[in-house]
Amino acid sequence: MPFDCTAESAHFACSLGLVLRQYARELDWADGGVVELGTGDARAVSEVVAGLPGLAVRSWDVDAASVDEARAVVAEHGVAGQYTVEHGDFFAGSAGSPARTVITNPPYLPAPDGDLQLPGLWGGPDGNALLLRVLEGPWEHVVAAVASYADPVGTLAAAADAGFRVASFLAMPLELGHYSREPKVLARIRELVDAGRGWADEDSYMVAVALLTRSPRIAGDRSAELAGALQLPVPALAAA
User: Concatenated DSSP letters for the chain?
Assistant: First the structure.
């Protein structure tokens, strides 16, 4: 079952579209295309693809129901020739792809286990397990949603260790919703916040869609700015 959050989907679509337009030459997406971890309902990326005729996206999702819905959404947007959705594991399916760029709005609920109301939203004990796996891969560029309560300190430290820099980002606040308020999830969020590994207040958290890159063709590093936007203490990031 795909997760539906209109505000988050709109934020991801807007941010992704801006990144792909601004860095079209550096990302070379017109040549190698783009791969996507986790299709969801495909609405956000379908909108982006519809506005970028030269963009080809190949996506994988492990949830069969999400794949069926995503394919219908892709057809509805008239981009089936540009946006393919496959049922299966991203890491196996994308191996050997010529694409240099990964896009993802990964599941990021932190919890001790995946026995949740919507198990597909589980992002591992710290909420960033899938994103960390992406950062371990061969990709030159990663455009990803980073949640302030899913150990962004660990995520940014792992990105730096893997040679990534934060080239740009767009952050916005979101309300803690039904799934993030599930008791075991909320308890884990509070543990991460208390440990200085994230931020959330009683009602909200931050999500940033960030371009992480290893390319020398893209200058600068805004990691400290991203940490600030996620309400993280920059010294904690430096010490991670």
Answer: -----HHHHHHHHHHHHHHHHHTHHHHTHHHH-EEEE--TT-HHHHHHHHH-TT--EEEEES-HHHHHHHHHHHHHTT-TTTEEEEES-HHHHTTT-S--EEEE----B--SSS-SSSGGGB--TTS-HHHHHHHTSS-SEEEEEEETTS-HHHHHHHHHHTT-EEEEEEEEEEE--TTTTSHHHHHHHHHHHHTTS----SSEEEEEEEEEE--TTS----HHHHHHHTT--HHHHHH-
140 Cα distance to chain centroid: 15
Residue 16: pLDDT band with limits 50, 70, 90? very high
Q: For residue 85, which of 108, 105, 111, 66 has the smallest C-alpha distance?
A: 66
Asked whether residue 106 is domain-assigned, the answer is: yes
Give the range of the structural domain holding residue 131, as residue numbers without chain letter: 6-239
Number of domains in the chain: 1
For residue 239, the model assigns a pLDDT of 47
pLDDT in tens, 160-208: 999 999 999 999 999 999 999 999 999 999 999 999 999 999 999 999 9
| CATH, residue 151 | 3.40.50.150
Tokens 């934020």 — which residue? 11
Whether the model pTM is above 0.70: yes
1 inside domain: no
**DSSP 8-state class, residue 109:** B
The pLDDT of residue 36 is above 50: yes
Say how many C-beta atoms besides its own lie within 10 A of residue 175's C-beta.
11
Place of tokens 């986790």: 38
